[in-house]
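Bumping with the actual sequence this time:
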Amino acid sequence: MKKLVFTLVAVFALSASYAQTIDELKAEQALKKDSVAAIQGRVDALQGKIDAFPGWKKGAFGTIGANLSGFNNWYLQGTPNNSSGNIGVAVNAFANLDREKFFWRNSGNVNLAWVKLDDKDDATDSEDFEGTTDVFTITSLYGYKLSDKFAVSALGEYRTSIINNFNDPGYLDIGVGATWTPITDMVVVIHPLNYNFVFADNDAAYESSLGAKIVVDYTRKLGPVNFKTNLSTFQSYKSSDLSNWTWINSFGYSIWKGIGLGFEFGLRGNKQESFANSTVAGATLENTDVDTQSYWMFGLNYAF
């Protein structure tokens, strides 16, 4: 009986000691968490001051999508012996300088994709990756500040493709006007004096003209999320048939050390391009309908 009582007392004492140790460790952990939170708060405050300091701010994020496959005697499909693949790369980058009296904002968007379907039973088909998505845009905006939100500005924007038809067509917008920055990270460009230079071999389909340029750009980083939307429009004074617009949206979600998931989609309306690629007999620029062009891409993302 004495042994049983002694054992019970020992177990009770050990349990009490263990409970006391756990409580002490939890209390110490809570203190350290508070200390870490306080340190992180000071770090975030310093980073905010660094971000607010005028100077060059640079950044980039991009998406890579890839899918490769091979089949041998896979008879359930139309081409039982083939190798195929899809590869896509999209990159958004910026370099912005902000001073007390002026700013200079530069950005670039590149989206390239290739696809291959090699039918091994057809000696005449291509074994190479063929370009599909092909987007290349660079923009440079300079502004002299009249206030915190308004500036007189000059813009240069160049758009083309680079895989198959470099500068055919190519578009160069150069103009002056005003820039409005209503909120942080948003830029609205309104240039009533802008010339849209169009470079192309097919002079019958493409024509340069004077018009108005409007650009709305919003680029933001919220924790692990990178987001960019850009709407660029040109309204020709000569004819609405010479007007065009492009809207590109890019998203990146970082999961681990800058690596995550990315998605990009773009829309475009350009009557000159619709006419140049029309297969309708007797088509003219005036009677050609504007086809809404689009692309999208999903894959792995990396934020620099």
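The tokens above came from a reply further down the thread. The CA atoms of residues 134 and 165 lie 9 Å apart.
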